[in-house]
Amino acid sequence: MELNKGHGQKGEDEDRLGMLPDDVLLSILGRVDIATAARTSSLSTRWKHLPWLLREITIDVNDFLPTPHPTLVEAEHMDAAMASLTKAIRSFLGAPQSEATIITRLLQLKLYLIGDYSDLVGPLLSDAIDTGILKNLDLAIVNEKEPVDCSDEDRLHQACAIDGFFSAHPSVIHCLTSLSLDNLCFAELDMHHLLFDCYKRLRCLFLSYCDMGWLSAWKIDAPGSHLAVLELFCCCFGKLEVLHLPKLERLCWDGWVSRDAPLTLGVVPSLTELKLICAATVPFKGFKLSNVLRGTTALENLILSFQGETLWLQPEGKQLCTVFSRLRKLSLLDIFIEFDLLWMIILLEAAPSVEVFDVEIWEHPCIVDSEGRRLTYGQRINPSWKVAEFATRKEWQLRELQVLGFAPMEQQMTFIRAAIGALPRSERLPKERGFPKGKDEQDVVAKQLTAEIVNPHLKMIFAD
């Protein structure tokens, strides 16, 4: 957002903006960072009160760091950023700027928990909550160290510091609707009590590089929880057992370290989206997806990413029919480019209600099969599922098949022929990432794919 370009236009621009109603100006302010929003209050008396009328405020410590942001943030820059962030919180929440009570319905706050800033920020938040100025808080606490630089002692210390912050300011706990934490070890704390017994209003939880001690299992049994979104990134739990989370709608786990199935689902009646991302390492045995999904009844969107390595799904077929009964979108991502793809037909057979099917082929510049890669991930093993298990096909509802990373290789052409040959209702078949180029090449590939297939509804699209 640029304000007042040139001295000659200043008065004219102010008058033009000043004619807009408050709700339009507030919509503009809601799209800029907090520092810019605060500066607008000095433009004129028309703007003076507006930043304090925002119902949603975002105060991000990154906005107070040097620009461009350095790869490694120096301690003095963190301290200066937190000083500015504290000032911003005090400015917006410390005292209403008009006689009427100004209520901030949501504060999105990202900060470092360094120095004595927790003793400064905590009371400001508590007072705003206790006086009714602040209703909801989305909080992200950033570790000042990168994951590779964090020792076990550092991660234990950070977990205790966060526990101390919430214990000292219980009002903050009762206002939390979203919480993001990273680089923590809860081995010396009751993680379940902290995250589910205390945070009654928490709806979104994001954890990265967290654990309860190396490969310890994390059991969640919280029938009274309102948690709707749970996202884990590189968290070293030996297993996640979701025994009871009745409001959970979305679960994402990106990267796990486990020899067996990393996840079990119990009572999760609201779960509609599940996303699992992992590159199978040498000791990982894989698992049957039907066993993991056994507790689901409403799953509509399933996303599986294999990061270009061996599939961590064990072959199965009809066992998936029950857990796939309401599936509407299926995404199989980062499939090694040389793998056979016909095994995917089994998943489609088990989920005839799927309307959108996304396939992504993994062809990466770092795909070189080095000795270091083989030591970690082993030899890539081509899928060996029994495609002929289903004797008959149910009528599929599939209307969109997207293949990202398409190349006219035999295994891809065979798979696509098999898919579109059984899709009387298919409307389009997008294939992205630059090949084939030009209408002539596209026409050739289209003819190869649709040879001997009678499908008047099929429309093939090649998108860059």
Automatic annotation (TrEMBL):
Query: What region holds the At1g61320/AtMIF1 LRR domain?
Result: 171-367
InterPro entries associated with the record: F-box-like_dom_sf, F-box_dom, LRR_At1g61320_AtMIF1, LRR_dom_sf
Q: What SUPFAM superfamilies does the database record attribute to this sequence?
A: F-box domain, RNI-like
Domain of life, source organism: Eukaryota
Q: Where is the F-box domain?
A: 19-50
PANTHER family reported in the protein's UniProt record: F-BOX DOMAIN-CONTAINING PROTEIN, OS07G0645701 PROTEIN
> What is the name of the protein in this document?
F-box domain-containing protein
Organism of this sequence: Urochloa decumbens
